[in-house]
Amino acid sequence: MQSTLTALEEILAKHDWISTFTHSPDVLSLLRSNDAPSPSQSAPLRASFERLKTARAELQSDLDLLHNATASLQTQMSRLQSFENDYKAAFSPIRRIPSEITMEILRRAWENGPFSHYLPGMNVSGFNVFTIQEGPWHLGQVCSSWRNVIETLCPELWSTMTVKIPFSYPQVPLIADAVEILRVVLERSRNHPLDFYFDGTEVGEAQAMKRCFDVMVSHSERWRAVEIVLPPALLPQLSLIRGKIGWLRDIYITCSRANGQPRDIHALEIAPKLEKLYIRGMHPEATISFPVDNLVFFSDERPFAGDRRTPEYLDLVKFAHFHIMTTVLA
Q: Which superkingdom (predicted)?
């Protein structure tokens, strides 16, 4: 350290004369006029000029040396700062927060600002299971401890979802990938009630969405608030949930491109907790059986099927404790 200080002092002392240097009278006289140096002035002035150039070159050399030393020291400083930050991170108080506290923080953060894949017209929505920038997928990318808590201790974060192929999804075969992704989400939701929006009408991914709907049907005992938009080809799959929807409270069913022969639906016949039922787009003559004991809202937006539905609606009206909405479409 002492030798370094001595070297710096020598450099400063070597150039200390510059602070007191002044021009000679001959130079000052020439600077006050436009006269050229006389022959007797030229030789000493040129010698002084060369000495100044040499001194400036020596000073520049010393500055370069100091700049290089400073840059090297700055690099070392940055490296030490990085190591210091690592130690600060290791001693960070957040590392000592119990998993149960982290779990509660994440749960409350979800309640206050959920990652919801909401689109106009949707009655049920949640994070899109196929978009890793949303919902618990996104939160789990913060750090390994958060990921562990989210994957193992927060089933409710995984149980409110949207199952719909997003516009930005890669244009590659999705059957295995989509089904596996959905199974992972359902596994992490444990036995928590499921609230979800399912859209199986993506023409380009019909097979993948059929497999996904089969997976959702296999978990029908956990359905609570459900909105499904299905092509006619998937409607028969609803028969598999009959008697297996004990938690179902709300269901919104939309059938796209309803055509062909009417297909009666008895899937909702045994739904003891059913409170809201919304029907749209199904064949107007299809019979849909459902319990009315706890029903508080009913909406049927199928095309008008004539007077054959009237007795059914009149029977529903007898239950004064619920709101009925029927829309007749010409």
A: Eukaryota
DSSP 97: S
| Joined tokens for residue 90 | 């290791």
Boundary (domain end) residue, out of 28, 60, 91: 91
Both 87 and 123 in a single domain?
no
Q: How far apart are CA 154 and CA 100, in angstroms?
A: 10
Residue 194 and residue 106 share a domain: yes
- Give, in degrees to the nearest 5, the angle at Cα 298 between 292 and 303: 120
Determine whether 121 is exposed, middle or buried from the number of CB atoms within 10 Å of its CB (0-12, 13-18, 19+). exposed
Say whether pTM exceeds 0.90: no
**Domain edge (last residue) among 42, 64, 91:** 91
Percent of the chain with pLDDT over 70: 86
Q: Look at the chain and count its residues.
A: 330
- Please give the radius of gyration of the chain, using alpha carbons only, rounded to the nearest integer: 39
Decide: 205 and 229 in contact? Cβ < 8 Å. no
pLDDT-based confidence at 111, cuts 50/70/90?
low
Q: Which of 137, 146, 155 is nearest to 95 (CA)?
A: 146
